[in-house]
Amino acid sequence: MNQRKSQAGFSAIEFIIVVIVVAALAAAGYVVYNRQNNDGTATQPTNTQTASTDVPSAPTISSTADLDSASAVLDQIDPSISNTSDSTQLDSQLSAF
Asked: How far is it, in rounded angstroms, from Cα 3 to Cα 5?
């Protein structure tokens, strides 16, 4: 009678199949990873709004003595002349809740 010896481990064909499956998964993961990273850098938001010339810029602060003058300049800015599209957009999003 033919008796098979007990085999331990994988055969060469099984090993090749496992290597092919792992390589296919690695290639798919690499493609997905690169696609996500490239899309993220290409679609980063850019500042397309132009600043209004009526609004003064905040003064540069180089010491603590400049804080009072910066506070006075910022207190004089009228928020009604600034771009209100951001607050309008936020209001419309919050009204959904």
From this structure: 6
Instruction: Determine which helix (DSSP H) or strand (DSSP E) holds 79, and give its type and residue range.
Output: none
Q: How confident is the model at residue 56 (pLDDT cuts 50, 70, 90)?
A: low
pLDDT recorded at residue 16: 95
CA distance 36 to 38: 6
b/e sequence 8-31, b meaning 16+ C-beta within 10 Å: eeeeeeeeeeeeeeeeeeeeeeee
**Model pTM greater than 0.70?**
no
d(CA 60, CA 74): 12
- The closest of 83, 44, 77 to 59, measured between CA atoms, is 77
User: Once rounded to an integer, what is the mean pLDDT over residues 31-37?
Assistant: 89
CA distance 16 to 18: 5
